[in-house]
Design goal:
Shape of chain C: globular
Helix content of chain C: 40-55%
CATH topology of the largest domain in chain B: MetI-like fold
Distance between the termini of chain C: 67 Å
Distance between the termini of chain B: 34 Å
Strand order of the largest sheet of chain C: 2-1-3-12-6
Oligomer: heterotrimer
Number of domains of chain C: 2
Number of strands of chain B: 0
Chains: A mainly alpha (298), B mainly alpha (282), C alpha/beta (412)
Number of domains of chain B: 2
CATH topology of the largest domain in chain C: D-Maltodextrin-Binding Protein, domain 2
Shape of chain B: globular
Helix content of chain B: over 70%
CATH architecture of the largest domain in chain C: 3-Layer(aba) Sandwich
Radius of gyration of chain B: 23 Å
Chain lengths: 298, 282, 412
């Protein structure tokens, strides 16, 4: 009895010791700014205000939630997230399926597929901006050469179009992430299950629909939720390509927060917005965890 | 399994499309980096330029008089040092911590784990202002260790989350028998556990390196001189008040993309292994 | 104590005091790749340090886009003492306590600086910086295209410009004669500032009250929309910043363009330009009783609120803004001192530009000097773009900006 108790304590103690460095770094660095930002969100911290420092309680939250720009930005963020995620998932799945079969050059293709993901985000955004250039961009050049376009056009000058073009760039960079996840998961689906389905007379499509897809469902859920959280954080691509324009077409939540803090000097609004974003992310985290639990059971 | 020739053709077509989709932007970046300005802005555009120049690359590596280009090398050095340090420290601290989550029982285990995951999801914008103030009071602005510390807050949660999943999925038998034979916790950790988990550790190391190498916003705010400026910031600087030097950005992009691409490509096998375990298992 | 001992004692004390007077170190934040070259600033700083051995200056150069962030973060942290600011930031920074107020200039000095440049550093009667980099927009035109269209001289009014552009377009000399920088960015506000002033309008009155719905403002916006509809303005202008306007102009794809001084040098650069020798620079046209108007793109040197060495910082600023320094490097940035425009050395550096600049600078208009300028400018840009894209009428757009401006002004 005595030994067991000591054993348990030492396990707890060991755990504490082993976790300490990580805790110091993460909590030490992040917790304090998080706390300060929270305090800002409860005050008037607009630098140009004459009432700076005044305690406002939840007034800022009410103000942000009641502001049309917040919901518009949220809408854009959701559009960006849902569309780019849907494309990444479907494309990632298709590519993973392709890379899971055997054909000449598959090994080469597997290696190549990683390149977009390993290219730094700033580089990706800059290169795509250059590709979209309305006067000399290569996209224009290729499409006019192929007679798809009659003449050069602008890609980032219409709000909706600009958002979609940014999505293309982000999808290009991040699809390999999904590909790798799915590829790994596919390799777990046992060969025997496939054979059984073939013997039962299922064609390629039938096999996919009834065997592969259900087996991949938990992975799809996990990829979707994990990527969603990263999409909410996406900043670099908007900073380089469009700066939130045109006509606010690509002003997503995180970019709004950046502008409010650094350009408008509205620290309290920016802090409030950041917390709202964090709460959204928290909600998604809970979904992520539930999806994982379900995936585990499957 | 036999596949119809029609299906096969479709597969090859798709493979070709994927190849084009993946490679074209990169190819265009390379072409832009070696083109002369007049050619690259010509309409109609010649996809393969008549003239090629390696001057920009030469400037980066050998011409201290072209300050912007030469500064790029320093930025590269900073990025390499910072990313490597972040990776190493994340691995050490992260694997210890994830071992705890995967194998040990202690109070609030789940809560702490989810909280760590939560910190990974916070946008950097939230924490910048207070962080800047504190770091400046400590005189720690514009230094590489500061960047390492900041990046650790991003890479640690990711490392812990992925690795604790991976460790959790490893078999316990070796550990148990070693324990029975009288090895203490640390010995078990070092001699049994880590060698077994090596592929996962390598995978996480690569992912951590990529996270640090990719980062832009913190570097932008917290660095200002070549003492600590990273590649992301250096590339962003190729645009001035009234012009954007796309050719230089492309050249910088080619160089900046090489290390992470090389890292990812060489170790791609391990990436697959690491991702799987972290995501699927709990 | 003998007098000799006293003298020795005093001398020793003074020496000791001298030893203890350590040099003061100040940090200065400048911009790279525009205005004065880094070598110019480094050279000037070295001269300053020679003249003032007790002050040591550390220089940092960042791209223009990073200036604002660095200045803001420096305000509490004191990372920099001297910062290169921008005209539109003055009101915002002054109100928020990001930069310190500085001593007023002597009457003689104040008279020798262009009025628009000086007023861009003032807020509520106090001065918050020293004008340093001078810049404004000009009308650039392609002499060859104009001559081919039968015009010997550039237009003097906007109506005349539109007429000339139509002729150029009809003669198929250029597809879209006018290139503008109307991307959703500060450049759009700059262009609108020019046009609204040219048509006799103003965005805010002298007391800082918004007057967006004034007739002159509407005329300006209508002119912009019409030029797009009539096909005399390049439709890609909605995505262009000054950089793209420059590229378009020096390729010979535009007959008219509004741009900053740098475009003239670019047009003469044989390695980049296809129109060497064909670029003309003229006064921006006006309309009706207004002869001309241009927007102030100047950048002042300010002292960061977090600075602990304001006196030394101000000494450094005065030195760098002095006539001596600016006289030495006129090629990269035109001086702020009116008197220097008659200086032979300055004129020789850029004869075409200096001649026009002296005239153009007297029509300098500042972007609204209000503390909420950034938010206002963003809203203005969005509404103007919506109008130019045909989504709103000019009345609607201006009414909405007016409402927003009133809301911003009322905010405590």
């Amino acid at each position: 009895m005595h030994d067991l108790r000591r054993q348990k304590l030492s396990e707890q103690g060991f755990a504490f010791l082993v976790l300490l460095p990580a805790a110091v770094v993460i909590f030490g660095v992040i917790l304090f700014p998080l706390g300060t930002t929270f305090v800002y969100s409860l005050q008037n911290m607009e630098l140009i205000s004459e009432e700076k420092g005044k305690f406002l309680g939840l007034l800022n939250y009410a103000r942000v939630l009641g502001a049309s720009w917040f919901w518009e930005a949220l809408g854009r963020t959701l559009y960006f997230t849902v569309v780019s995620l849907a494309v990444e998932t479907v494309l990632g799945l298709l590519i993973a399926l392709l890379l899971n079969t055997r054909f000449a050059g598959v090994g080469f293709l597997r290696v190549l597929v990683i390149v977009p993901w390993a290219t730094p985000g700033i580089v990706t955004a800059s290169i795509w901006k250059w590709i979209y250039n309305p006067e000399y961009g290569v996209l224009n050049a290729v499409l006019t050469r192929l007679h798809v376009l009659a003449e050069y056009r602008a890609w980032l000058s219409d709000p909706f179009m600009a958002m979609n073009m940014v999505i293309v760039a982000d999808v290009w960079k991040m699809t390999p992430f999904a590909v790798i996840f799915f590829l790994a998961a596919l390799q777990f689906v046992s060969a025997s299950v496939y054979e059984a389905a073939t013997v039962d007379g299922a064609g390629v499509f039938g096999r996919f629909w009834h065997v592969t897809l259900p087996a991949l469902a938990p992975t799809i859920a996990i990829v979707a939720v994990m990527r969603t959280m990263e999409k909410f954080k996406a900043f670099d691509v908007f900073y380089v390509m469009t700066r939130g324009g045109p006509a606010n077409g690509t002003k997503v939540l995180v970019y709004e927060a950046y502008l409010k803090a650094f350009t408008n000097l509205q620290y309290s609004i920016a802090s409030t917005l950041s917390y709202l974003i964090a709460l959204l992310v928290l909600g998604l985290t809970i979904i992520y965890v539930r999806a994982l639990k379900r995936g585990d059971a499957a | 399994m036999r596949r119809s020739p029609g299906f096969r053709a479709l597969q090859y077509l798709f493979a070709l499309l994927v190849f084009l989709f993946v490679v074209s932007p990169v190819a265009w970046m390379v072409i832009t980096s070696i083109s002369i300005h007049r050619d690259i802005i010509s309409v109609p555009l010649k996809l393969i330029p008549r003239q090629a120049t390696l001057q920009r690359f030469r400037d980066v590596f050998t011409n201290p008089r072209n300050e912007i280009a030469h500064a790029f090398l320093f930025a590269m050095r900073n990025s390499l040092i910072v990313s490597t340090l972040v990776t190493l420290v994340s691995l050490v601290i992260g694997s210890l911590a994830s071992y705890a989550f995967a194998r040990l029982r202690f109070a609030f285990r789940s809560t702490i784990l989810y909280f760590i995951l939560f910190t990974y999801m916070i946008p950097s914008v939230v924490v910048v202002m207070p962080l800047y103030l504190v770091l400046s009071r400590l005189g720690a602005l514009n230094t590489r260790p500061t960047l390492v510390l900041l990046y650790l807050t991003m890479s640690l949660p990711f490392v812990i989350w992925v690795m604790q999943g991976y460790f959790g999925s490893l078999s316990k038998t070796y550990e148990e028998s070693a324990s029975l034979e009288g090895c203490n916790r640390l010995q078990v950790l070092w001699h049994i556990y880590f060698p077994m988990a090596r592929p996962g550790i390598i995978a996480t190391a690569i992912l951590s390196f990529l996270i640090a190498w990719d980062e832009f916003f913190f570097a932008l705010v917290f660095t200002s001189t070549l003492d600590a400026k990273t590649i992301s910031v250096a590339i962003a600087e190729f645009s001035g008040k009234h012009y954007v030097d796309y050719e230089m950005i492309a050249a910088g992009g080619v160089i900046a993309a090489l290390p992470p691409v090389l890292v990812a490509v060489i170790f791609q096998k391990y990436i697959v292994m690491g991702m799987t375990a972290g995501g699927i298992k709990e | 104590m003998t007098r000799k001992t006293l003298v020795i004692a005093i001398v020793l004390l003074a020496a000791a005091a001298g030893l203890f007077a350590a040099p003061v170190s100040i940090n200065a934040l400048f911009m790279k790749q525009a205005g004065y070259q880094e070598e110019d600033i480094i050279g000037g700083t070295r001269d300053f340090q020679a003249a003032f051995p007790d002050i040591n200056v550390n220089l940092t150069f960042v791209p223009y886009e990073q200036l604002e962030e660095k200045i803001i973060t420096s305000a509490q942290a004191g990372s920099y003492d001297v910062v290169l600011s921008d005209g539109p930031f003055t009101a915002k920074f002054a109100q928020a306590g990001i930069v310190k107020s500085v001593p007023a200039l002597s009457a003689a000095d104040a008279k020798d600086i262009f009025e628009g440049a000086l007023s861009s550093t003032m807020y509520k009667g106090k001065s918050y910086g020293m004008p340093w980099l001078n810049d404004c927009k000009y009308l650039f035109y392609n002499k060859k295209i104009l001559q081919a269209a039968g015009f010997a001289n550039p237009p003097k009014t906007w109506e005349e410009l539109a007429a000339q552009a139509k002729v150029i377009r009809d003669k198929k000399l250029v597809k879209y004669p006018i290139a503008w920088s109307w991307a959703q960015a500060e450049c759009l506000t700059c262009d609108y500032t020019v046009l609204s002033a040219a048509f006799g309008g103003a965005m805010f009155d002298k007391d800082g009250n918004p007057t967006l719905t004034a007739a002159g403002n509407k005329k300006a916006l209508d002119y912009m929309a019409a030029s797009l509809k009539d096909g005399i303005s390049n439709p890609n202008s909605l995505e262009f910043t000054e950089n793209e306007v420059d590229s378009t102009f020096i390729k010979g794809d535009a007959a008219f363009a509004l741009n900053w001084t740098f475009q003239f040098a670019e047009a003469q650069d044989a390695s980049k330009s296809s129109i060497v020798g064909q670029a003309g620079i003229a006064l921006i046209p006006g309309s009706g009783s207004v002869r001309s108007a241009t927007v102030n793109g100047g950048q002042p040197l300010s002292i960061s609120a977090g600075s602990k060495h304001a006196t030394e910082a101000w000494q450094y600023i005065l030195y760098m803004a002095s006539r001596d320094f600016q006289k030495k490097y006129p090629k990269n940035a035109l001086p702020i001192w009116k008197s220097l425009y008659d200086d032979a050395g300055v004129i020789a550096a850029a004869p075409d530009v200096v001649k026009i600049a002296k005239d153009q600078y007297s029509y300098l208009v500042n972007r609204p000097v209000v503390p909420f300028y950034s938010e206002f400018s963003t809203d203005l840009q969005v509404r103007i773009q919506e109008c130019l894209q045909g989504k709103k009428t000019s009345d609607q757009a201006l009414k909405e900006v007016q409402a927003k401006a009133l809301e911003l002004a009322a905010r405590k």
